[in-house]
Design brief:
Layout lengths: L7 H4 L2 H13 L8 H8 L3 H13 L3 E5 L4 E5 L1 H15 L4 E8 L3 E7 L5 E7 L24 H21 L7 E5 L2 E5 L4 E2 L9 H17 L2 E2 L8 E4 L3 E4 L6 E2 L5 H20 L18 H6 L5 H13 L9 H10 L3 H63 L4 E3 L10 H9 L17 H17 L7 E3 L6 H17 L7 H18 L7
Antiparallel strand pairs: 1-2, 3-4, 4-5, 5-7, 6-7, 8-10, 9-12, 10-11, 13-14
Bound molecules: adenosine-5'-triphosphate (ATP).
């Protein structure tokens, strides 16, 4: 029994714990949590999560598991301990962790201290650890809660113990003081004594025997049967007083096997006294003789620790089976209806926020798609307008060719064109060469005479028509208008046929990652225990 090494906690940053919590959340529904899901839950970039996971793996807080269908991380026992301790530290309940003082079948018990260094006990429930490896063969995604997790069972055990400790202390039963519970850790008062199994000498053996039998009767009169009342779960303190430290299988006196459990408890004590102290007594209580005065069993049943939880836990204790709370369909329905504690609610709300954000993201995408669609529409519209314009232009071109005949010149009038001023006209005539012209490589072949003719006609037209400088088109080209039209339409068609450019490299990976995240999160049916 050594010391718990918690030094590492000092060096872990907020993001480390964020990823740890995400792993815990992911493990509610998954056997292993894929990196993509971790990143989605933690809302940290996948690259950063991968780095953090590397750190956490190095310190055995999580472990990378390679599955048949997918690789992913699982929270280790140490990681779960750290999560609970951190939360308890944050609450100001725990200030230090010391030596291990006890190790049971289903728990590790450490002595610790609060912020003022007052002694306390930290009991880490480890339910299912004995058969933990069994599940490895079937490691893969959970089917709802078909495969129980040790996280669930350990947490249940801790909740139950805390609920019972608090209730029993309130009725003046000799039990440790219940301080707090977080995940699988119960914080309770330290009992300064030794377990009965280690006691070799007692001053008043019959007195101790009677005190123990009275305690069994007191439990029964409150409607409870301990179920595991033996020398390992009893501690002897100053003045030979007894403290009960563990009650994993406490049942109601209304239980169908109540008598059997009651007699078993009585027999345990009788056998122990006979074996250890050679003390035998014919006086021992019987359940039928006990008068029931309180209904603690009913109160405890209503304390949030539901029947199904109890069933799960008892099966796990009885069978020592990791999959103990794997339930048949009927049970599962019940659990889904009844299950739910504060922690779960918190995590559900966490998940809801994640879902909401995802929905927002979806909406954004839909909006983006709409926008893109509109853009495309506009593009197409522009295209059809362009086609129309092209037809119009080519018609006009043909007309020009017809009208001008061998003059080769035409002036197009634009509806928005205004009549240029005299100065403009003079300037234009002076800078005729600078006017944008549609020309081709055969321009040199145009002889001076033709140029003069053009100028003459242009001046003539200007004097009669409303013409602007920018509307001037000089057709000195030898390319046939049909050919121009053909080339332009061909170019247009080619543009249309161009395949959509796909995002490649990093950008593509990011969008693929987001898509797969959404799909993975979509698999959740909410936290269901
Ligand atoms: N409040 C406490 N104060 C002092 N010691 C404690 C306290 N609780 C537990 N221990 C020590 O830890 C040991 C194990 O505790 P406990 O019996 O509760 O664990 P367990 O896992 O339920 O054990 P098992 O199921 O094997 O009986 C005890 O034998 C006792 O020595």
């Amino acid at each position: 029994m050594g010391r718990m090494d918690v030094n590492l906690m000092r060096y872990l940053e907020g993001e480390h714990f964020r990823v740890l919590v995400s792993c815990e959340m992911g493990m509610k529904n998954h056997e292993v949590v894929p990196l993509a899901l971790l990143s989605a839950i933690a809302k940290i970039h996948r690259g950063a999560v991968a780095k953090i996971c590397g750190d956490l793996c190095k310190h055995s807080l999580i472990a990378l598991e390679r599955g048949i269908k997918c690789d992913g991380y699982r929270l280790t026992v140490r990681g779960y301990d750290f999560l609970a301790l951190r939360a308890l530290c944050a609450r100001g309940v725990v200030g230090s962790v010391g030596n291990q003082i006890g190790v049971g079948k289903e728990s590790d018990v450490y002595v610790g201290g609060d912020a003022e260094f007052n002694d306390l006990v930290l009991k880490f429930h480890r339910l299912g650890r004995t058969s933990f490896r069994k599940i490895k063969e079937k490691r893969d995604y959970h089917q709802k809660r078909k495969n129980a997790s040790w996280l669930y069972l350990s947490r249940l055990a801790a909740q139950k113990e805390f609920a019972f400790l608090s209730a029993l202390a309130a009725k003046n039963f000799p039990v440790p003081k219940a301080i707090d519970v977080c995940r699988h850790v119960v914080v309770m008062g330290l009992i300064d004594g030794i377990t009965l199994c280690h006691v070799d000498q007692v001053d008043d053996i019959p007195g101790l025997y009677h005190r123990l039998m009275s305690l069994i009767v007191k439990f029964a009169s409150h409607g409870l049967i301990h179920g595991d009342f033996n020398e390992f779960n009893l501690m002897l303190i100053k003045d030979d007083k007894i403290v009960v430290i563990d009650f994993p299988q406490m049942v109601s006196t209304e239980h169908e096997n109540a008598e059997y459990y009651f007699n078993r408890d009585v027999e345990c004590i009788r056998t122990f006294f006979r074996r250890k102290f050679g003390f035998d007594s014919d006086e021992f209580p019987r359940l039928c003789e006990v008068k029931r005065r309180h209904t603690m069993d009913i109160e405890l049943a209503a304390s949030g620790f539901t029947k199904d939880m109890q069933k799960d836990l008892n099966r796990a204790y009885d069978e020592g089976d990791f999959k103990a709370h794997e339930s048949d369909d009927e049970d599962e329905d019940d659990e889904e209806e009844e299950g739910g504690d504060e922690d779960v609610e918190e995590e559900e709300s966490d998940m809801e926020t994640i879902k909401e954000e995802d929905e927002e993201h979806d909406e954004e995408e839909v909006n983006n798609e709409k926008k893109e669609g509109e853009k495309m529409k506009k593009g197409l519209l522009a295209c059809s307008r362009f086609d129309a314009w092209l037809d119009e232009a080519s018609k006009q071109l043909e007309q020009v060719v017809k009208i001008e005949g061998d003059e080769h010149v035409h002036i197009v009038k634009h509806p928005n064109q205004t009549v240029p001023s005299v100065e403009e006209r003079e300037y234009e005539s002076d800078n005729e060469d600078k006017v944008p012209q549609l020309v081709d490589g055969n321009e040199e072949e145009v002889n001076d005479e033709e140029e003069k003719k053009e100028k003459r006609i242009r001046n003539m037209k200007r004097s009669n028509q409303t013409v602007g400088t920018r509307s001037v088109m000089s057709v000195g080209s030898t390319i046939a208008p049909e050919e121009v039209k053909r080339r332009v339409t061909m170019e247009l068609r080619q543009n249309k046929e161009k395949t959509k450019i796909r995002a490649k490299g990093k950008q593509s990976a990011v969008s693929r990652g987001r898509k797969s995240n959404r799909e993975t999160i979509g698999e959740y049916a909410g936290w269901d225990f």
